[in-house]
Amino acid sequence: MEEQPHIIKGNLGNLRGIIHKPIFPSKGIVILAHGYFTSTKLGPENLYVQIARIFANCGYEFWRFDSHGVGDSDGDFHESTYESRVNDYKIITELALKQNDNILILGHSVGTSIAVYLANMFPQNIKTLFFIAPSFGMFTDALLSKEKQISLQKQGFVYRRTQLIKKDFIDKMVSENIYQEVLKCNAKYIIFYGVNDEFYDRLSLNRVMQYMKNHTLIEISECDHNFLNNRDILLNSLTTIINDI
User: Which of 10, 48, 112, 244 is the most exposed place for a label (fewest CB within 10 A)?
Assistant: First the structure.
């Protein structure tokens, strides 16, 4: 396996990331749609790095890039919008399609809803979506306290730790429109859900699954939104699923 740094020109600046290449000819290209807030192409405690290496060892190329305003890519975090992220991954997908017509998307957290939009943009090429901690609908107070949610509505922004969070992004993140996108999507959903997810409860997951035409759910006990506990179970389950595709 090779791990190569790469730069892709986005509409708002350079998008920087790492491409993991398998030893043998690639079965397809997996594109990461990373989470929000503090998430970068590394993932919480290097989650995305671990996942990328599993895919590469199973014969898939894995592309993990920071979206605009995140990590090593150009721009500042407060410039990042939901729409800019969707567009960043659209550009990345178009480039990947020049190399391989089999594209898979792996989304974590808010990246799961972005993955749905991408699948609907490229329905002939994106047949499988991997969801790590799916994030649809309203979140719990553990993500943003009630006080911060009130401030967000009143002033249009709020700080979470040191990050400026904008109302426009959150509104897109929780939009009801996503359920019709899920219903429209014909890709297969492979879902990994930590039963102790502190940000999105089981009711949120149950609701979005009602709109899915084809899904597989893997529940992982004693695991949170970022799979900081029992991560080995997640990674082993992922390996099994990839080998069965």
Answer: 244
How confident is the model over 132-190, as pLDDT tens digits? 999 999 999 999 999 999 999 999 999 998 889 999 999 999 999 999 999 999 999 99
Name the DSSP letter for residue 44: G
Tokens encoding 216: 């597989």
User: What is the residue-averaged pLDDT of the chain?
Assistant: 96
Query: What CA–CA distance (Å, rounded) separates 69 from 46?
Result: 19
pLDDT at 13: 96
**Cα 52 to Cα 118: distance, rounded to the nearest angstrom:** 19
Q: Give the Cα separation of 191 and 34 in Å (integer).
A: 15
The helix/strand/coil state of 125 is: coil
DSSP H or E run through 126: strand 126-132
Distance, in Å, from the CA atom of 233 to the CA atom of 225, rounded to the nearest integer, reads: 14
The 10 Å Cβ neighbour count of residue 77 is 16
Using DSSP bridges, classify how beta strands 61-65 and 126-132 pair: parallel, antiparallel or unpaired. Answer: unpaired
Is pTM beyond 0.90? Reply is yes
User: What sign does the CA torsion over 8, 49, 46, 142 have?
Assistant: positive
- By the 10 Å C-beta count (0-12 exposed, 13-18 middle, 19+ buried), 139 is classed as buried
